[in-house]
Design a protein that fits this description.
CATH class: Alpha Beta
Strand content: 15-25%
CATH architecture: 3-Layer(aba) Sandwich
Structural class: alpha/beta
Helix content: 25-40%
Number of strands: 5
Order of helices and strands: HEHEHEHEHEH
Radius of gyration: 15 Å
CATH superfamily: Isochorismatase-like
Number of helices: 6
Largest sheet: 3 strands, parallel
Shape: globular
Number of domains: 1
Strand order of the largest sheet: 3-4-5
Distance between the termini: 29 Å
Length: 168
């Protein structure tokens, strides 16, 4: 099993959440439930849980079983009921859930901002047999090159969207 220190990414996600809460914007968590008992995010496993330091901020928690948070969930209905038209994507396993969800959101007509350095992955260049691959940067670049999904680093988010400078 992997042990990765995602403390920097977690801090950025927490600051984003605090900014949304301060501005009375909804915070929706997506929990991936994997039915494969061998999976590090298997249903009921510690890896399948949302971090206890973050989950307390959730207005909604949606469970999904595919990389997209929209497929076979009620996410779109929740967003519509809240009047949301712009979503901000963060999360873990950058090349799966955050990337698929960002693309699916765009396909459904949402304005999408992907906070690249508030995503992380347990995978690396050896996983994909692609020496030198920076997965997070690659995903961010592909989404950015699409010219339909805005890709920002956390500091750029603060400059463009936050009402006040966010601190830890």
């Amino acid at each position: 099993m992997y042990f990765c220190d995602f403390s920097l990414e977690k801090k950025k996600v927490k600051n984003l959440i605090k900014d949304f809460k301060r501005n009375k914007q909804p915070v929706i968590f997506i929990r991936h439930k994997d039915g494969n008992s061998e999976s590090p995010i298997a249903d009921g496993s510690e890896g399948g849980n949302i971090d206890s330091d973050l989950v307390k901020y959730a207005d909604n928690i949606i469970e999904k079983s595919t990389p997209s948070a929209f497929l076979k969930t009620n996410l779109q209905e929740i967003l519509q009921s809240l009047g949301v038209n712009h979503i901000f994507v963060t999360g873990f396993n950058t090349e799966y859930c955050p990337q698929f969800t960002a693309i699916a959101a765009y396909d459904r007509g949402y304005q999408v901002t992907f906070i690249e350095d508030a995503t992380a992955t347990v995978n690396d260049d050896s996983t994909y047999e692609f020496p030198g691959l920076d997965i997070r940067d690659f995903v961010g670049s592909v989404l950015n090159w699409s010219n339909v999904i805005e890709v920002l680093d956390y500091e750029e988010y603060v400059e463009q969207y936050a009402d006040v400078e966010l601190k830890s």
